[in-house]
Specification:
mainly beta; 22-stranded antiparallel barrel; five-stranded mixed beta sheet; 53% strand
């Protein structure tokens, strides 16, 4: 309750201050640099930030919803090269690691997190790259090069961005070609961990003011952050990516942007530590091991050739604990299995706009092909216990049409349709407890087809010069068909009653749903520098089929769509003659049919499946501030508080889970400062940031929840840059996690079925130097 009081008091205080300061009618909209302002410290103001969060260009301060914009300069100051590096850059944005492998990122906003990373489970935060939906949050690490900006939209975005936006949307925009002349850059980074990165881009005008192309590429390698017992580097990466964009404007009424991209990523996986092993319990009469350790201890004992006696069992348990827990350090493991990951993505997009006078017609088309393989070790010991080998081969096609009208000065509307088709084959081959399991390995294999079609409309009307009403609706239909062929070394593992044909190892599962999404908002602008708004919005995450079930038919039960309805009140303000920008929002979300993943053990095989938590609620608040106190100094900060709880959760296999926690931090905050001064006639910039997040209980289904929880911690980063104006050259030195904090980005809980838990280690301190040369109009 103390934290709730603090956040409410903070929001109330800044709201009153903003409203009071924003009331004068003569306030002017912030611009990058004022023309004739007296005094050296009064010349610089915060600039106008343009976003497309509502599918049209407008100032972020005029949009009645919570948005954080991460632009090119912010990405450069913090040396962002990975989607997971965005943790702490936007209030309520949360990123974690999980079973999806090293190429996957679990993105959450305002308490909404995804259950799994499969073709059959959708995320709760939609990711769009250059207006094209990415149905799976895979391969985003290499997408963050030559980026113009990232827009983080918080809260349900169902009307304009469709399904899978219960938490919000992450919009990534790469740099476009332009007609300003040849320009570009070459960038190189060298750092610890033998990090070497080279990237660059060039814009080439082909026909003056008509046709231009932009070519961009990146190559990045490092030696990883740890090692296993084989001496193999863990976390080692080798990424390559390329993008080509073409902008054609044959007339003033037609604009066509076409893009093609390719990514290849190789890695040796994550550093996975065993963080807990259950205490040993032996039944003296049967010599059966209790406390969920029977399978692990028996497999270890057999591998070591120890007898089935109390002494032999105890020796096997001690050997497992020693191999699991006594490593050379936080980033060292005793894993004896080579681990790896490989990802290849390629795709293209087309964005065509035609202005026909009263309306603008727009067609957005995208195609993406994904190929992914990885080998992981979920025990990281000398023993052969649990080693999933995952694969996924999928393709996705999207087509979207818009009609945008701007006839009336007071009325603006957009209507459209959206279609997405995705299909692929996916699964895993997992050796499990091979010393005692004659049916090892277990094999999950299935073919999945997903289809989504929707229609939407949104309109805004100016009731008065300062009061605006916005409303929107979207209707979506989703279908999913899965053909499962799960098996193990002993044959088909599908429940016989679910087979399509007796004796043939194939079972077909179908789900479909039809869901509406709504938006209604009212905003008031009493002055040019203040916007007050109230918003109601809803969205849903599609249901699906469980594909990693066991011989128990319950584990193949479908899961229902997840629904979120949110109420938000906020303000956006520019104060102190444009030197201070202060935005804040509070929200309350009604959360139904929450999708959650759980793992159970059946006959020495693990089964992971998704269920629906019946109902929950999320509420909280966010504050963001930017301040330019002098021409040389820039300050910013953000704070978010999210309180999420289940109101009722009855699990078919595990019973009442209502008291479990959401795997999110309640409190997050960040503070940044950048000081720029002339040295030798050139700009010297010093940047620093502190990003802190609260405790997170990642796996509430665990028996020992404290071992799958990460205590609150902060990460310190800094950068110093010197700009050589005469040479168009920037020389920088940077550090991330400077205090070398040891922390985990995710956990898996096996203590209910195998007797231990594991955690994914976060990156250690990294340092490097960077040189960027710009040429042409850059």
């Amino acid at each position: 309750m103390k934290r709730v009081s603090i956040i409410i008091a903070a929001l109330t205080t800044v709201s009153v201050a903003a409203i009071s300061a924003g009331m004068p009618a003569n306030a002017q909209e912030a611009v990058a640099v004022a023309g004739d302002t007296a005094g050296e410290d009064a010349s610089r103001k915060l600039g106008t930030v343009t976003v497309t969060a509502r599918r049209v260009d407008e100032s972020v301060q005029d949009v009645p919803l919570a948005i954080t914009v991460i632009d090119e300069s912010v990405l450069a100051d913090s040396a962002i090269s990975n989607i997971r590096d965005l943790q702490g850059f936007a209030p309520s944005l949360y990123l974690a690691s999980g079973p999806g492998g090293p190429s996957a990122a679990n993105v959450g906003i305002r308490g909404q997190t995804q259950a799994d990373t499969l073709l059959t489970t959708d995320p709760s935060v939609a990711v769009y790259v250059d207006e094209i939906s990415r149905p799976r949050q895979i391969g985003l690490r290499a997408a963050l090069f030559d980026v113009d900006r990232i827009e983080v939209l918080k809260g349900p975005q169902g009307t304009l961005f469709g399904k899978n936006t219960t938490g919000g949307a992450l919009l990534v925009y790469s740099k476009r070609p332009d007609f300003e002349g040849m320009s570009g850059y070459v960038d190189s980074v060298v750092g610890n961990l033998n990090t070497v990165e080279v990237s660059g881009a060039v814009t080439l005008p082909v026909i003056s003011d008509k046709l231009a192309v932009r070519l961009a590429g990146k190559s990045a390698q490092n030696d990883g952050i740890g090692q296993n017992a084989l001496g193999q580097n863990l976390g080692e990466t080798n990424d390559k990516a390329a993008r080509a964009s073409l902008l054609w404007e044959p007339t003033s009424h037609i604009e066509w942007l076409a893009t093609a991209d390719w990514t290849e990523s190789e890695t040796t996986g994550s550093v996975i530590n065993v963080v807990h092993v259950n205490d040993l319990e032996i039944n003296p009469d049967t010599l059966r091991v209790g406390n969920a350790l029977n399978s692990i201890v028996t497999a270890t004992r057999v591998e070591l050739g120890l007898p089935a006696t109390t002494e032999g069992i105890t020796a096997a348990y001690n050997a497992f604990v020693d191999s699991a827990m006594n490593t050379g350090g936080f980033y060292e493991t005793n894993g004896s299995t080579p681990v790896s990951g490989r990802l290849e993505l390629w795709g293209g997009s087309s964005d065509l706009k035609v202005d026909v006078g009263p309306v603008v017609l727009r067609s957005i088309t995208g195609y993406r092909d994904t190929s992914r393989n990885d080998i992981q070790d979920y025990a990281q010991t000398q023993f052969d216990l649990l080693r999933p080998n995952n694969f996924s081969y999928a393709s996705s096609f999207t087509q979207e049409f818009h009609i945008v009208d701007d006839i009336d000065d007071r009325l603006f509307w957009i209507v459209g349709t959206f279609y997405n088709s995705e299909d692929g084959r996916e699964g895993s081959t997992t050796p499990q407890l091979t010393a005692i399991n004659p049916n090892s390995p277990s094999m999950t294999a299935y073919f999945a087809e997903n289809e989504n079609i929707s229609v939407f409309a949104q309109a805004e009307y100016e009731l008065t010069d300062t009061l605006r009403l916005t409303g929107g609706v979207r209707y979506s239909e989703t279908e999913q068909q899965v053909v499962s062929r799960n098996a193990n070394g002993g044959g088909c593992t599908l429940p016989p009653e679910l087979l399509d044909t007796a004796g043939v190892c194939a079972a077909t599962f179908d789900t479909d749903s039809a869901q509406p999404s709504y938006l209604a908002s009212l905003d008031w602008k009493p002055s040019e520098d203040l916007l007050l708004y109230a918003k109601f919005a809803s969205s849903f995450r599609a249901g699906g089929n469980n594909v990693r079930g066991s011989s128990d038919p319950v584990t193949f039960s479908p899961f229902e769509p997840e629904e979120a309805t949110e109420y938000e009140v906020g303000f956006k303000s520019d104060l102190a003659d444009g030197r201070l920008r202060l935005n804040a929002a509070t929200f309350y979300t009604e959360y139904k049919n929450i999708q959650r993943s759980t793992t159970v053990s059946r006959n020495n095989n693990l089964a992971t499946f998704v269920t629906n938590a019946a109902q929950g609620r999320v509420y909280g608040g966010e504050v963001e501030a930017w301040l330019v106190p002098t021409d040389n100094l820039e300050l910013s900060g953000s704070l978010s508080y999210v309180d999420a709880a289940y109101e009722d959760w009855q699990d078919a296999l595990l019973g009442d889970r209502t008291d479990e926690k959401f795997p999110i931090p309640e409190l997050q905050y960040s503070l940044t400062a950048k000081y720029t001064v002339l040295v030798g006639g050139n700009d010297l910039s010093i940047f620093g940031a502190w990003r802190w997040r609260d405790d997170v209980e990642f796996r509430s289904e665990a028996i020992n929840t404290d071992t799958v929880s990460q205590e609150g911690f902060g990460l310190l980063e800094a950068r110093i840059s010197y700009h050589l104006t005469d040479y168009n050259l920037d020389i920088s030195a940077f550090g991330k996690n400077i205090l070398d904090e040891e922390y985990y980005t995710g956990f898996l809980a096996f203590d209910t079925n195998l007797g231990y838990n594991i955690g994914y280690a976060g990156d250690p301190a990294t340092f490097g130097v960077e040189a960027r040369y710009r040429f042409g109009a850059q």
